[in-house]
């Protein structure tokens, strides 16, 4: 990557564009052109946001766990829960989502053990995640602002309560663009079984240009909408068509030679053709060895689908995609009933592939430059809902991060005795965003975009008091 | 300086006009100072708004602006500059050396990080030396409300038209303003575009559709000198004008066909009535102030009493209020704790305020929810005063869910006509049902009676045949068990020849059973046993609610679940409105649903029952009977599910009903009675035709006419509204009253609540607001006019005079041509009506006419190297910009050119659906899916993919402006999507039927898609392409047709199709 800042400073935007047109290819050019309206008068500042000393990370893979994984059954061992199991919660009032179904303390039926040289404590449900304990940072002291799924999803994805704001990944690609002109910068690997709760709002670019929104890769057929040439169209007929189209556009451009938008559109004919080759290639898993497929759990029915997407994520990152996000159908971690039983199935699905992704990135030397983030939108309560479920909890939850300059074998923060409320080294979702941007070499205070009469940003630090959590970074 | 203050055509020597002219002249005196100060140096003095203010904004306002005000200095407004900061005045006009502003800048002390360039310094210096023109006098500034002097917060002023040197290109005043700025840069307006270019430009601009070939030929060949303005007038009169410009307003107002907020994103099936009202209002050129007032307070203006019929105008006013309902509203689905429900409700009000303030006044206001706005002179109090305007509609304590906010209002006679049709048909249905029932009773085949009870015998001893225990069981069912022969609840008793079931109010899950044990499993294949009874009533007292269920049992054998028998105790849980659930009771396993039967609900006056048929070895079909005939779904059970046992009637809490003529009978499969049953069914179907006929008519009858999703006060007393401390819903502070924004207040036009009238119980708060924001000559109306004029300009030229159109506040951009914007706004809103000139205040069509008749609009898009170097972004409009069509215009044009456009205007949205592939497409691709994009369902979470790829927004709040992106996915859509491929094919077919020879078809193709004649080299290239492409397609059925479709597709994929010059 070039240093945006030094190029940008002191030169006109137009000169900047012409410089970049050569070095980054047409897709990057179109990325920059698209923002004309907002940039022309208010000076968008995505390109000013690079920190003096670049972060290590160049890419992010977010394994998003819709529904709110239960921290006290997975990551946050609380012996007090076992002790008080079945008794009224002794710690005062709890903030619940479903007021009328609050029950007694619910202990975890799962054993916890220490993993790795660092001795990170995790549940027996996560033996594979345990095997990467020495490579990850586990945050046990997360805090968010809503016990409502949609609102909490918006917060963790966009940093805002309000709907319609840009996703974190959109901010990142707005700032850093793409390293591969033939693939989208932000790829969404949605569950082939269906959309997650809140659907494509999860990867919306909000008020940023639509070019920064996530591009979902479909599970079957052509991975990108309209990618495949219609059946029955031969290479010969299509070739002549494109020749004609080029000629039309070239002559049109001659009438407006300085119009960079038209030039970009002319170039897009070639880019589209290259995408038609590049995308099927990147999703072709037959290029992977049997050992790799096995490692990602592709040979086990319960983890095959999720593992396939984890493997796909690695392939995309390898090819220069900036941000890959995995989503699950609906909100499977939302264990309002049969908490323990449901977790078993979900861990069987995700534990091995998630860990394999980290191991694989590491063995390929990509982990240094790639952040892997495993998180849900909130956590769950120490008491039961009904007989065997757990209700939403915004005051305490756990997540893990690997690579991209985050510490390895490190546990950050703690919740109270019952795992209800984060009490030590509390990390808000805004702190998380600020820290992620820092790891990517971006200044969260300077990564802004003019919106609604002000410079909007992912963290809005003046309001949210977002702070970079330096302790998480190596 | 010429002082053409009004349209050239207007006479100003009339007595009424004269007074106005005098006033105008007085203002011009001020304006002269503002726009062209006396400055004797050899070059013109820098102008504050055009040059100095942008410079200050660029370099200083971040620290010395409304947000930070370091050193108490705010350089974001003219008065802030003159007022100075904690170190006193920052400038002394004409005295550069003593001006603090200059000293700090000259020493590079300020701005601390990146000093001004030499050019910028020179500009600042010259300006101060020239006396700092463009600033108000110091004594005027003292004591004024902060920010009140912002240019957009002033009443409208008549502006003098500037002087220009080269008048050759000027068509109207717009050109004077633009040309004078261009001349400052040594530039000029471009020559006029050719006619083909102009008609394409005007047609897309005004209707969102391409001109037809006939329209092009008419205009291009029109010899009249006013051919152009006549063409403009034709498109302004087109019904498609309202569709195009209506969509712009709907986007600005945040319109959507779904509720949003939660994942469910439920539909708004009635929102379309508001959409159609907007389209009609624009087509009829409803003056914009009336247009606005109707949307804010149409219900209070209408003088309408719910329950009455109404005129079309009144109905329109009610529809218009849906404007206040465009916000997301998840309260129909709220299910969280009370705090969350409160958040959901507040979100509706907050979204509505945001939509209103932004669509009407171009202000962003939501910051003021938690604290005084840091960038705008809007206080937190202002914010909650606006909430108080809406609180009677959105009453947090007395909330109405979105699906319940509606009113019925229909044209006189409309409801009555519908109602009488309903009554006639309902009576016919009742009659036919009775007739059929009587017929069925008379003609139904009778089997061997196993058990019958008509509850008629006078000396009836019910307990001889009925019991509260199952046959052979000792333990009574229910707690307490049902009394037999007693009206003491729970109990069953005979009265008036029917059996009455009197359940207790509390829990009483019992039943009564026949003492007789019945064999429910006929031995022979084809054997039948059936139970039927008349349901004579579903309540015992008129005051009772109808029974929630009518339940009865088959195969009752044991209540205690300790029987060795597997199944039985089969509860038929008759549902009054839907299919009936069948529960099977397994000993120790509890009661489980075995599925549903039937479909006709349990209503008094019909005969119900169950038929069991032995269909194959060990399998028994359970059919629901209505009037002795199978009804809806059936189930199949095993023999073990149907042990021998009694027939029972459920005695459940609050489920009172009455039955009569209970018959259990048996039919043998191949016997005479079995055949009779088959014959009966055939005859019944014939008899039933009359009933089917009237029922079909009833179903075809539309819903009650006149249902309108409106916004109206819930009562004439308003709930208290409080400022919320830091926006915290749990922390109400000072109580507030409704009021307009303080910064726009002016003494002559107060916010004033007047009685609304006798007919409706509303508070009049919204009506007061509607008048406040549109009051002639008021400050608020001035901003309203500026925002709207700027928005219209933005749509015609691609960029607003203030470029981001959603912000005319202090934090917004400065206008590129402030005087032009003022002139347009003044002419739009402040000119008085004149019959002579046809002038109507607030007329949008008049505004379009002025803009479209300007030379600026009629310029060509030609390239000019010199002009491009000086003004690469074309902010001075030295040519007409080349613009890409928006998503809707692209899709609509594709349909229009291929001849597929479904021209239906208005009505409910055309549904869309999400395919498994994730693509969102119209649900009915060849019908409603070919309507204009405006009519496709605007579902917030389901934007039609083709529109989304060309930047159609997901509506969350409003969307006054869209980015224009250029990305490969668009190219892929044009090359590979089924939609475009099909359009190309149909376009080719259309050409084939319209012209015989290829050259004529090529000409028609160019005229249709690109709206111009093909050049000769294009014709040659096209013919060559067709030749070669047909060869490539040699193995196709019709190579020529395929080649034509391929050519057409490339015309539609080309930039010339996507862009307008």
Q: Oligomeric form of this entry?
A: heterodimer
Q: Describe the biggest sheet of chain A?
A: 9 strands, mixed
CATH topology of the largest domain in chain A, what is it called? Answer: Alkaline Phosphatase, subunit A
* Through-space gap between termini of chain B: 34 Å
Largest interface pair: A-B, 80 and 79 residues
Radius of gyration of chain A: 23 Å
Tell me, what's the shape of chain B? elongated
Structure description:
The complex is a heterodimer of chains A (474) and B (1061). By secondary structure, chain A is an alpha/beta fold. Chain A has helices at 4-8, 13-33, 36-42, 71-74, 79-84, 127-131, 149-158, 168-176, 235-255, 260-282, 290-295, 301-318, 339-363, 429-439, 461-464, and strands at 59-64, 102-105, 112-115, 120-123, 136-143, 186-189, 215-216, 323-326, 370-375, 379-380, 383-385, 392-393, 397-402, 410-412, 414-415, 422-424, 427-428, 448-451, 454-457. Chain A contains 15 helices and 19 strands. In chain A, a hairpin with a 6-residue loop joins strand 15 and strand 16. In chain B, strands 2, 4, 5, 6, 8, 13, 14, 15 and 17 form a 9-stranded mixed beta sheet that branches. A 7-stranded antiparallel beta sheet of chain B has the order 3-7-16-9-10-11-12. Chain B starts with 14 loop residues before the first helix and ends with a strand. The interface between A and B is large, with 80 and 79 residues.
């Amino acid at each position: 990557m070039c240093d945006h800042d030094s190029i940008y400073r002191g030169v006109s935007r137009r000169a900047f564009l012409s410089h970049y047109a050569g070095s980054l290819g047409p897709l990057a050019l179109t990325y920059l052109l698209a923002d004309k309206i907002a940039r022309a008068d208010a000076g968008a500042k995505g390109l000013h946001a690079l920190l003096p000393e670049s972060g290590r990370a160049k890419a992010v893979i977010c394994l998003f766990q819709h529904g709110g994984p239960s921290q006290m059954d997975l990551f946050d061992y609380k012996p007090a829960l076992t002790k008080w199991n079945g008794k009224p919660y002794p710690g005062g009032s709890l903030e619940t989502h479903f007021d009328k179904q609050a029950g007694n303390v619910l202990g975890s039926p799962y054993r916890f053990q220490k993993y790795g040289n660092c001795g990170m404590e995790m549940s027996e449900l996560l033996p594979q995640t345990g095997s990467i304990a020495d490579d990850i940072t586990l945050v046990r002291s997360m805090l968010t602002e809503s016990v409502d799924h949609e609102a909490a999803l918006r917060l963790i994805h966009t940093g805002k309560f309000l709907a319609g704001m840009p996703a974190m990944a959109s901010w990142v690609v707005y700032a850093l663009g793409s390293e591969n002109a033939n693939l989208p910068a932000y790829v969404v690997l949605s569950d082939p079984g269906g959309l997650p709760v809140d659907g494509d709002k999860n990867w919306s670019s909000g008020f940023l240009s639509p070019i920064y929104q996530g591009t979902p890769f479909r599970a079957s057929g052509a991975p990108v909408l309209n990618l495949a040439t219609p059946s029955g169209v031969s290479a010969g007929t299509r070739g002549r068509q494109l020749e004609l189209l080029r000629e039309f556009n070239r002559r049109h451009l001659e009438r407006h030679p300085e119009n960079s938008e038209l030039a970009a559109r002319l170039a897009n004919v070639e880019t589209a053709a290259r995408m038609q080759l590049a995308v099927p290639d990147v999703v072709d898993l037959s290029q992977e060895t049997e050992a790799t497929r096995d490692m990602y759990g592709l040979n086990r029915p319960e983890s095959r689908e999720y593992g396939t997407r984890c493997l796909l994520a690695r392939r995309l990152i390898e090819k220069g995609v900036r941000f890959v996000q995995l989503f699950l159908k609906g909100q499977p971690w939302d264990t309002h009933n049969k908490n323990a039983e449901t977790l078993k199935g979900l861990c069987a699905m995700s534990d091995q592939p998630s860990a394999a992704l980290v191991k694989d990135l590491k063995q390929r030397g990509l982990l240094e430059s790639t952040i892997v983030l495993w998180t849900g939108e909130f956590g769950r309560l120490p008491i039961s809902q009904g007989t065997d479920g757990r209700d939403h909890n915004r005051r305490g939850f756990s997540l893990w991060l690997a690579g991209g300059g985050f510490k390895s074998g490190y546990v950050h923060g703690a919740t109270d005795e019952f795992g209800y409320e984060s009490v030590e080294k509390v990390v808000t979702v805004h702190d998380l965003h600020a820290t992620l941007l820092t790891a990517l070499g971006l200044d969260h205070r300077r990564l802004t975009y003019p919106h609604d009469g002000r410079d909007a940003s992912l963290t809005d630090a003046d309001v949210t008091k977002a702070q970079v959590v330096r302790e998480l970074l190596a | 300086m010429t002082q053409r203050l009004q349209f050239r055509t207007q006479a100003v020597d009339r007595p009424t006009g004269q007074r106005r002219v005098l006033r105008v002249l007085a203002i011009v005196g001020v304006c002269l100072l503002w726009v062209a100060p006396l400055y004797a140096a050899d070059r013109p003095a820098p102008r504050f708004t055009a040059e100095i203010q942008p410079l200050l904004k660029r370099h200083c306002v971040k620290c010395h602006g409304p947000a930070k005000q370091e050193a108490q200095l705010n350089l974001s407004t003219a008065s802030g500059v003159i007022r100075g900061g904690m170190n006193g005045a920052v400038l002394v006009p004409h005295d550069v050396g003593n001006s603090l502003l200059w000293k700090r800048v000259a020493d590079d002390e300020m701005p601390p990080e990146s000093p001004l360039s030499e050019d910028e310094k020179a500009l600042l210096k010259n300006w101060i030396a020239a006396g700092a023109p463009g600033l108000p006098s110091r004594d005027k500034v003292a004591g004024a409300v902060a920010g009140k002097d912002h240019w957009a917060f002033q009443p409208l002023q008549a502006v003098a038209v500037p002087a220009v040197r080269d008048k050759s290109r000027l068509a109207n005043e717009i050109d004077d303003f633009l040309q004078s700025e261009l001349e400052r840069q040594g530039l000029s307006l471009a020559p006029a575009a050719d006619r083909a270019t102009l008609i394409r430009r005007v047609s897309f601009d005004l209707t969102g559709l391409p001109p037809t070939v006939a329209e092009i030929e008419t205009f291009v060949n029109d010899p009249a000198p006013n051919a152009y303005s006549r063409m403009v007038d034709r498109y302004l009169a087109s019904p498609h004008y309202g569709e195009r410009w209506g969509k712009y307003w709907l986007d600005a107002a945040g319109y959507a066909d779904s509720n949003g907020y939660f994942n469910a994103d439920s539909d708004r099936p009635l929102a379309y009535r508001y959409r159609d009202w907007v389209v009609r209002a624009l087509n009829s050129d409803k003056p914009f102030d009336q247009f606005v007032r109707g949307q804010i307070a149409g219900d209070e203006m209408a003088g309408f009493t719910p329950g009455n019929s109404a005129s079309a105008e009144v109905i329109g006013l009610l529809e218009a209020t849906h404007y206040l309902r465009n916000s997301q509203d998840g309260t129909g689905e709220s299910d969280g704790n009370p705090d969350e429900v409160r958040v959901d409700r507040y979100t509706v009000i907050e979204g509505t305020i945001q939509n209103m303030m932004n669509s009407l006044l171009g202000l962003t206001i939501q910051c003021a929810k938690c604290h005084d706005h840091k960038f705008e002179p809007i206080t937190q109090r202002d914010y909650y005063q606006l909430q108080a305007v809406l609180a009677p509609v959105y009453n947090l304590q007395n909330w109405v869910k979105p699906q319940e906010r509606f009113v019925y209002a229909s044209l006189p006679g409309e409801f009555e006509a519908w109602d009488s049709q309903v009554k006639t048909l309902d009576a016919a249905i009742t009659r036919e049902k009775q007739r059929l029932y009587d017929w069925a009773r008379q003609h139904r085949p009778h089997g061997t009676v196993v058990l019958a009870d008509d509850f008629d015998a006078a000396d009836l001893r019910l307990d001889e045949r009925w019991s509260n225990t199952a046959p052979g069981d000792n333990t009574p069912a229910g707690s307490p068990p049902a009394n037999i022969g007693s009206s003491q609840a729970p109990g069953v008793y005979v009265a008036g020849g029917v059996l009455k079931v009197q359940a207790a109010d509390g829990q009483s899950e019992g039943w009564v059973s026949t003492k007789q044990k019945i064999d429910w499993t006929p031995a022979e294949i084809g054997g039948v046993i059936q139970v039927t009874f008349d349901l004579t009533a579903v309540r015992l007292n008129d005051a009772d609610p109808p029974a929630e269920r009518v339940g009865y049992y088959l195969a009752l054998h044991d209540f205690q679940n300790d029987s060795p028998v597997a199944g039985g105790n089969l509860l038929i849980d008759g549902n009054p409105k839907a299919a009936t659930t069948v529960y099977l009771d397994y000993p120790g396993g509890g009661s489980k649903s075995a599925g549903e039967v039937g479909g006709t609900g349990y209503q008094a006056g019909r005969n119900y029952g169950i038929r069991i048929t032995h269909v194959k070895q060990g399998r028994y079909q359970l059919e629901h009977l209505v009037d002795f005939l199978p009804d809806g779904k059936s189930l199949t059970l095993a023999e073990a599910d149907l042990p021998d046992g009694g027939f029972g009637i459920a005695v459940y809490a609050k489920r009172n009903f009455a039955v009569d003529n209970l018959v259990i009978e048996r039919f043998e499969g191949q016997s005479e009675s079995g055949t009779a049953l088959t014959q009966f069914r055939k005859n019944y179907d014939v008899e039933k035709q009359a009933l089917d006929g009237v029922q079909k008519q009833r179903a075809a009858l539309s819903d009650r006419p006149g249902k309108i999703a409106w916004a109206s006060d819930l009562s004439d007393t308003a709930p208290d509204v409080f400022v919320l401390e830091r926006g915290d819903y749990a922390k109400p502070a000072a109580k507030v009253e409704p009021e307009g924004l303080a910064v726009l207040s002016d003494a002559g036009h107060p916010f004033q609540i007047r009685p609304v009238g006798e007919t409706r119980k509303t508070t009049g708060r919204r009506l007061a607001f509607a008048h406040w924001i549109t009051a002639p000559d008021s400050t608020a109306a001035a901003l309203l006019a500026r925002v709207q004029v700027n928005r219209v300009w933005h749509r015609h030229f691609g960029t607003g005079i203030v470029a981001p159109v959603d912000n005319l506040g202090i934090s917004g951009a400065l206008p590129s041509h402030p005087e032009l914007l003022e002139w347009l706004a003044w002419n739009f809103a402040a000119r008085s009506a004149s019959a002579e000139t046809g002038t109507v205040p607030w007329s949008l069509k008049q505004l379009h006419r002025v803009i479209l008749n300007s030379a600026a609009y009629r310029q060509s898009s030609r390239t000019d190297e010199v002009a491009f170097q000086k003004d690469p972004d074309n902010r001075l409009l030295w040519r007409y910009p080349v613009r890409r069509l928006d998503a809707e215009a692209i899709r609509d044009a594709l349909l229009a050119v291929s001849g597929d456009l479904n021209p239906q205007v208005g009505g409910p949205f055309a549904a869309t659906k999400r395919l498994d592939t994730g693509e969102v497409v119209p649900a009915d691709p060849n019908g409603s899916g070919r309507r204009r994009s405006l009519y496709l369902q605007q579902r917030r979470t389901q934007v039609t993919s083709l529109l989304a790829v060309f930047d159609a927004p997901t509506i969350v709040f409003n969307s006054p402006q869209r980015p224009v992106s250029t990305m490969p996915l668009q190219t892929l859509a044009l090359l590979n999507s089924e939609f475009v491929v099909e359009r190309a094919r149909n376009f080719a077919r259309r050409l084939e039927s319209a012209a015989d020879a290829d050259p004529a078809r090529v000409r028609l193709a160019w005229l249709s898609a690109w709206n111009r004649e093909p050049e000769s080299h294009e014709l040659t290239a096209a013919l060559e392409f067709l030749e070669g492409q047909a060869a490539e397609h040699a193995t196709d059925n019709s190579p020529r047709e395929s080649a034509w479709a391929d050519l057409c597709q490339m015309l539609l994929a080309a930039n010339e199709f996507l862009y307008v010059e």
